[in-house]
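> example.struct
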C-alpha cells in the first residue's frame, strides 16, 4: 500500500498510462497523469481492441502466460473500470479464428499442440466446421484454429474510460501538458518539467508509447521503434456478427456497433500518421476476398497509429535502475489493450510493495549493467 502522501507522475494518457494511473490511485497514491495531447491520441485510440494472447503467440515463450493472465484478469478489471468511470464497455466474447494458408494446416495443428496446454478450449476446425461457424466467409480455407475464449472491446472507449476511472479514484489528469524533462536531485527522480511548471513527485512512470524522447537525455536508450499500423472501418449492409478472423494478410474484427475493422499494416520505423491509398486498397482487397459481402459495405473511415515496439516484442515494465524513482511502462507493441490492466496492477504492486515483476518484462534487459 501507498506510503501516506506518496506522489507519482504518470507521463502518457494512452491505455497504459491510464491503467497505471488507475491502479496507483486506487491504492491511495496522489497521481498526476500528464498527456501532451488528448487522452487516446496515440496508438491506443487506433487499436482494434482484441484481447488475443493465443492468436498473438506464434511460438512458445514468456508472452503467452503473461497474455493469458491479462485475459483472465480482464473481466473483473473492466467491472472496476466501468463502475468508476460510469460507462459500459461492451466486452464482446467473439472468439478468434486463425485461417490456415494453403499448405499451412500442419503448422497450425503443431501450434495447437503446445497452445492447448495453456487453453484447452482451443480447437482445430476443418473446412465444413468452419463454413458452419462463419457462413459469410469465402469458400476455400481448409481449416482454422479457433480460440473461443478471446474477446474484444472498443479500444478508444476503453482508453477514455481508464482515464476517467483513474480520475474518479483521485488521479489528476492534465491534457495538453507535455512532460519536457525528468527532474532529478541527489541521484534520484524528483519530478518532471512541463514547460510551464515543475511538478514534484516521489516517482515518475514513463508511459509515453513509442516516443522514448524523455528518457534519452538521461542516457537511457530503450530500443523503442514505432511500428505504424493503418486500419479501415466499414459498415456492412447487414450485420456481420461472428468471430474475429485472422488470415494471411490481415484480420477483420466485427465490432459491437455493427461496423467491421480491417487491419492492419505493419511498417517499422515510420513516425507519420498518414493513411496511404495503397494501404487502403490492399486492406479492402483482403477484406473482400475473405468476406465477399464486404464489397457492398460502406467505407466509414481509415486511420493510422504507432505501435510501440521493442526487439523481443515484450513490453518494458518496471524500474529504470540508473535513476531511482524512475519507472517505465512502454513497448506493448501489438498487445497494449490486452496488457494494460495487467501492466497497471503489476507495476503498482512492484512500485508500492516491492513485488517482483517477471524478468522477461524488466526494462533492465535493455540497459547496460549499473556501474560499480
Ligand atoms: C492499427 C493498430 C491495431 C492494434 N490492435 C491492437 C489490438 O487489437 N489489441 C491490442 O492489445 N493492441 C493493439 N494495438 C496495439 C496497442 O494500440 C498499443 O500496444 C497500445 O495502444 C500502447 O499503449 P501506450 O499507452 O503505451 O501508447 P499510446 O497509446 O501511444 O500512448 C502514449 C501517450 O503518451 C503521450 N505522450 C508521449 N510523450 C509524452 C510526453 N513527453 N508528455 C506527455 N505525454 C506524452 C502520447 O501523446 C500518447 O497519448 C494496435 C495498434 C495499432 C496501431
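> example.seq
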Amino acid at each position: 500500500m501507498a506510503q501516506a502522501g506518496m506522489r507519482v507522475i504518470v507521463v502518457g494518457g494512452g491505455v497504459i498510462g491510464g491503467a497505471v494511473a488507475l491502479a496507483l490511485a486506487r491504492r491511495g497514491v496522489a497521481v498526476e497523469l500528464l498527456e501532451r495531447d488528448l487522452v487516446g491520441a496515440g496508438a491506443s485510440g487506433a487499436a482494434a481492441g482484441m484481447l488475443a494472447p493465443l492468436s498473438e503467440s506464434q511460438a512458445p515463450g514468456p508472452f503467452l502466460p503473461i497474455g493469458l493472465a491479462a485475459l483472465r484478469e480482464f473481466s473483473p478489471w473492466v467491472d472496476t473500470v466501468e463502475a468508476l468511470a460510469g460507462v459500459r464497455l461492451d466486452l464482446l466474447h467473439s472468439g478468434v479464428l486463425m485461417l490456415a494458408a494453403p499448405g499451412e494446416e500442419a503448422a497450425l495443428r503443431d501450434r495447437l499442440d503446445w497452445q492447448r496446454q495453456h487453453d484447452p478450449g482451443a480447437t482445430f476446425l476443418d473446412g465444413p466446421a468452419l463454413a458452419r461457424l462463419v457462413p459469410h466467409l469465402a469458400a476455400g480455407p481448409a481449416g482454422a484454429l479457433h480460440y473461443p475464449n478471446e474477446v474484444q472491446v472498443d479500444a478508444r472507449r476503453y482508453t477514455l474510460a481508464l482515464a476517467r476511472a483513474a480520475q474518479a479514484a483521485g488521479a489528476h489528469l492534465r491534457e495538453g501538458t507535455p512532460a519536457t524533462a525528468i527532474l532529478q536531485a541527489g541521484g534520484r527522480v524528483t519530478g518532471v518539467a512541463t514547460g510551464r511548471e515543475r511538478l514534484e513527485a516521489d516517482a515518475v512512470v514513463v508511459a509515453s508509447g513509442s516516443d522514448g524522447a524523455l528518457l534519452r537525455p538521461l542516457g537511457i536508450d530503450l530500443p523503442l521503434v514505432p511500428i505504424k499500423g493503418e486500419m479501415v472501418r466499414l459498415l456492412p449492409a447487414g450485420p456481420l456478427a461472428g468471430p474475429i478472423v485472422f488470415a494471411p494478410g490481415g484480420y477483420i474484427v466485427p465490432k459491437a456497433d455493427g461496423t467491421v475493422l480491417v487491419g492492419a499494416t505493419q511498417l517499422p520505423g515510420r513516425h507519420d500518421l498518414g493513411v496511404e491509398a495503397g494501404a487502403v486498397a490492399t486492406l479492402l482487397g483482403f477484406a473482400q476476398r475473405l468476406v465477399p459481402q464486404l464489397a457492398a459495405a460502406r467505407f466509414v473511415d481509415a486511420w493510422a497509429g504507432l505501435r510501440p515496439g521493442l526487439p523481443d516484442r515484450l513490453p518494458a515494465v518496471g524500474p529504470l535502475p540508473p535513476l531511482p524513482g524512475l519507472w517505465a511502462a512502454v513497448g506493448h507493441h501489438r498487445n497494449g489493450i490486452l496488457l494494460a490492466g495487467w501492466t497497471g496492477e503489476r507495476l503498482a504492486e512492484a512500485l508500492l510493495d516491492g513485488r517482483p515483476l517477471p524478468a522477461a518484462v524488466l526494462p533492465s534487459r535493455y540497459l547496460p549493467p549499473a556501474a560499480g
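> remarks
The helical segments are 15-26, 63-85, 105-115, 127-133, 155-168, 277-290, 336-353.
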